[in-house]
Amino acid sequence: MKTIKHTFFYSHKPEAVWQYLTNAELMSQWLMPNDFKPVVGHNFQFKARPMPNFNFDGIIYCKVLEIVPNKKLVYTWRGGPGDGTMTLDSKVEWTLNAKDNGTELIIEHNGFASDESMLQIFSVMDAGWLQNIKKIAELIKTA
Amino acid sequence: MPQARLDAFQVIADPSRRQILNLLTKNSLSINHLAENFDMSRPAVSKHIKILYGAGFITIEDIGRERYCALKQDGFKELQKWIDYYNDFWKSKLQKLESLLDEKAKRSKQSK
């Protein structure tokens, strides 16, 4: 798995779901404490649990990139060990699709691997790293 | 001189290092062969290779007179760790959101 994508269906109108995605108080009820504002360019933070194993100090630094009311919301999602460097540099994208009896909510969290070429390398690593080791073994034999 | 330890994201943030990894997806290659693909000096390529090696993205083996590089899984696992973490994170958060929305709808129905 290289990118994260979840699709959920809620039997509520997009306007109701949108409130929970864009109102700081409501967001904190299911996500994390934050100082979000629905303004493009607004910098905000989520406060999470520090995870030293992950080089993560517990603060997620975000910036609102795109807002289409009741339809789409995009922000950056960055974190680091607390020395100013961002070791996690990713992007969260919310899409809301109105359905007859509710809302389809899609979250895509990506950018972990810097660019598309890394995704390709990822898939090679998944499928072929054993093969690569075999190649080395063959080279050693023929050397 | 020892290289400063970079984490997986910093390692792959550099385009030259990504290109080295890309070249290695097709085959294991000697350092000399890798260096031929770049305009920079051979020591500069070696420095990138050392960083990739230090972060567990590649192995280096001496075969005959050449040093061969091949992809290694450890560095990639570091990245996968974050992806796995956030995959579960969002799943549980979105479930929580569902119960909040349901509760709220129930409350507003009762108050009518």
Identify low-pLDDT runs of chain B.
none
Flag low-confidence runs of chain A. none
Share of residues in strands of chain B: 5-15%
Fraction of helical residues of chain A:
25-40%
Structural class of chain B: alpha+beta
Residues in helix, % of chain B: 55-70%
Q: What's the β-strand tally of chain B?
A: 3
Distance between the termini of chain B: 73 Å
The H-and-E topology of chain A, N to C, reads as EHHEEEEEH
Specify Rg of chain B, calculated over alpha carbons.
Answer: 23 Å
- The number of helical segments of chain A is 3
Most extensive chain interface and residues per partner: A-B, 46 and 43 residues
Can you count the helices of chain B? 5
Strand order of the largest sheet of chain A: 1-6-5-4-3-2
| Fraction of residues in β-strands of chain A | 35-45%
Taken from the alpha-carbon principal axes, the silhouette of chain A is globular
On the 0 to 100 scale, the average pLDDT of chain B is 86
Question: Describe the biggest sheet of chain A?
Answer: 6 strands, antiparallel
TL;DR of this structure?
Chain A is of the alpha+beta class and 143 residues long. Chain A contains three helices and six strands; from the N terminus they run E-H-H-E-E-E-E-E-H.
What does this protein look like?
The complex is a heterodimer of chains A (about 140) and B (about 110). Chain A is α+β, with helices and mostly antiparallel strands and about 140 residues long. Chain A contains three helices and six strands; from the N terminus they run E-H-H-E-E-E-E-E-H. The model of chain A has no long low-confidence stretch (mean pLDDT about 85). Helix content of chain B is about 65%, strand content about 10%. Chain B is rod-shaped and about 80 Å long. The mean pLDDT of chain B is about 85. The interface between A and B is large, with 46 and 43 residues.
